[in-house]
Amino acid sequence: MTQLWLVRAGKNGERETAVISQSAHRLGPSRRAMPLSEGGARIDFAVSRLALHGEAGPLQAAWWQPARLTEARSLTTGSAAYCVHDRDIEEPVYIGKTSSLPARAATHAAAPWPVREPWLAYSPLPQGTPRHVLRELESDLLGWHFWWSGRAPLAQYSLRPRRPTNAARETAE
């Protein structure tokens, strides 16, 4: 059974954690989350270790692990926040999140990038990190980059060249 996790600050600043089963969630908004029992299994997503702001750009954060984009198969499996960048330039050209780092890196490795030598800076996250947490991290990293540079990463919203379709080939001939 899939479970949704809810973590929020309590009245006195303490963290309250609740879990909603996927089936209960589908029943509608009238179902309330139940507090986790004392001593029960808790998942610490450790996302708070990513300090998502600083005086420098996002790639200067100490928690990134570097890797050649072409070495996708050697990356750790699981979820991650990541940046694609040129090896010699500390500014990301793309910021992303994924639930399968090797698969996503392989896709990126096969794509053309507007840099000489594309590298990956990534921060692995615990297995089972919820999608909304991944999206929030990606948004926060994009916001940090925009705050620092005043613009979006170079390839973030651009359409990368694709293989021409048969109709496009026939038109060109």
Number of strands: 7
Through-space gap between termini: 55 Å
- In the CATH hierarchy, the third-tier topology of the largest domain is known as GIY-YIG endonuclease
Strand order of the largest sheet: 4-7-5-6
Based on CA atoms alone, the radius of gyration comes out at 20 Å
SSE sequence, one letter per element = EEHEEEEHEHH
Number of domains as seen in the coordinates: 2
CATH domain class of the largest domain = Alpha Beta
- What's the rounded overall pLDDT mean? 75
Please indicate the percent range of residues in DSSP E strands (runs of 2 or more).
15-25%
Instruction: Give unreliable regions as ranges.
Output: 20-31, 161-165, 167-173
Helix count from the secondary structure assignment = 4
Percent helix: 10-25%
Largest sheet: 4 strands, antiparallel
CATH architecture of the largest domain: 3-Layer(aba) Sandwich
Overview of this structure, please?
The chain is α+β, with helices and mostly antiparallel strands and 173 residues long. It folds into 2 domains: 3-35, no CATH class; 47-149, GIY-YIG endonuclease. The protein is 23% helix and 24% strand. It contains 4 helices and 7 strands. The chain has a 4-stranded antiparallel sheet, with helices on both faces. It has a 3-stranded antiparallel sheet with strand order 1-2-3. Strand 5 and strand 6 form a beta hairpin. Residues 20-31, 161-165 and 167-173 have low confidence and may be disordered.
